[in-house]
Amino acid sequence: MGGEARLDIMIDQFPHYIEFRHVYKTFDKPVLVDSNFWVDAGETVAIIGQSGVGKSVSLGHIMGFLKPDSGQVIVSHENITDFGEAELRRLRKKVTMVFQSGALFDSLTVAENIAFSLELREDYDAENREEIVKGLLGLVDLEDRADDYPTDLSTGHRRAVAIARALAAQPECILYDEPTTMVDPIMSDHLGSLMLKLKQQLRLTSVVVTHDLELMRRVADNVVFLHEGAVIYFGPVVGLEFAEHPHIHEFLAMDRVQYE
Q: Which of the four pLDDT bands, split at 50, 70 and 90, describes residue 184?
């Protein structure tokens, strides 16, 4: 069966690029409870809620680092719930994650960190290495930091480098774990602009775990609101203000107080 025909069958069976179908996960206590939401190709979905409600655990399931106790996790139109490590490695060429820490190699320069990811590509051409790295640094507005080391950079700039390194793998989908946490307002605005640019120019599918409601409003198409492991709102960002659940009202009110 040809690749295109196989993809058509997969899309017919699993039409959303990412989907959680009745996902449950328990550690010491329930963390995800009958979790249902989806992300269509090219969309950005934000996952919000208080600490400890399962936001980062959701990203772990999308990457295949975690498996649900029950339910199904669909990624790239495939049911990855029972994928083995070899199948997950194939998946992770399509879906990449920008960790809160940045997860850069401190012993490598900024340019070398990006090139490391580049070399994992099957179509990598060493002759174009410098040109591609330079282009990726330009995309994240860090052309002048190529020879710096991660320890020379601010938290926000390290995250921008992590985004450039993720993009070097030419993914279909990028996951962001709290991209604006512990950065100053100017850098937070810069990272938001960068994420919006990637969405508009590259049409990347994205999932953003965040406490930053300004970032959510800026970049997301839809939002998943988690409370005690359950999805209590899933829909357009603009509809969040009209959601009836009292916890959502309280959460939004606290955010407004923060900025008054």
A: confident
In Å, what is the CA distance from 220 to each residue of 40, 198, 223, 235?
A: 12, 12, 7, 11
User: What long-range pairs does 227-236 form, CB within 8 A, spacing at least 24?
Assistant: 227/49, 227/50, 227/53, 228/30, 228/33, 228/53, 229/25, 229/30, 229/31, 229/32, 229/33, 229/35, 229/53, 229/54, 230/33, 230/34, 230/35, 231/34, 231/35, 231/36, 231/37, 234/36, 234/37
Rounded Cα distance between 175 and 59, Å, is 7
Q: What's the pLDDT tens digit per position in 35-74?
A: 999 999 999 999 999 887 889 999 999 999 999 999 999 9
In the structure encoding, which two tokens stand for residue 120, read together? Answer: 């994992």
Residue appearing with tokens 């994928």: 83
DSSP labels for 9-75? HHHHHS-SSEEEEEEEEESSSEEEEEEEEEE-TT-EEEEE-STTSSHHHHHHHHHTSS--SEEEEEE
Tell which residue, 64, 79, 88, has the closest CA to residue 19.
Answer: 79
Alpha-carbon gap, residue 184 to 213, rounded angstroms: 15
For residue 107, give every residue at least 6 positions away whose Cβ sits within 8 Å of its Cβ, in sequence order, or none. 149
- Burial class from Cβ neighbours inside 10 Å (0-12, 13-18, 19+) for residue 104 reads buried
The ranges assigned to domains in the chain are: 95-170
